[in-house]
């Protein structure tokens, strides 16, 4: 009982001290919550960065697969050009070069089919409007029959590899004749 009396006789604790301890604990809790929020934010940022790195790596691998043949295909283009020039120089009605022409045609077709299987497509824009993204203008020529700004001759075909320009087509672009009457648009 004496112990109970001592407990009852103890002076009450300092209310200011209790408030101070409560404020310290509240401040500590607030600080820990801020640290937790910062750590969660940092964790989300790291996860997003890892996802971006993974996505970029997948894109790089995809591009590497798509365009791995770019240099090799570029080296084969002069072969296709030479076969085309050989076909242009031989006449289809000449009996002496008929077998040579047939061989050139078959070889040329085989090469183009092989290139097409690997997504290498020829750009042969005769009659199409000039497109500076796929064509390289070598000259301009007056023409009464073609729309101004359209391709009238192709010196060398261009090629696209998986939609990316490998080599531009070298072309001659039409322009209106100098002595032609002005069009309605030019009068206005």
TrEMBL record:
PROSITE patterns per UniProt: GRPE
Predominant place of localization: cytoplasm
Coiled coil stretches, renumbered: 22-56
Cellular component, GO annotation: cytosol
Example GO biological process: protein folding
Transmembrane segments: none
CDD domains assigned: GrpE (cd00446)
Annotated region described as Disordered, given as residue ranges: 1-22
Subcellular location: Cytoplasm
Keywords: Chaperone, Coiled coil, Cytoplasm, Stress response
Family of this protein: Belongs to the GrpE family.
Subunit annotation: Homodimer.
HAMAP family found in the cross-reference section: GrpE
The protein's name: Protein GrpE
Gene: grpE
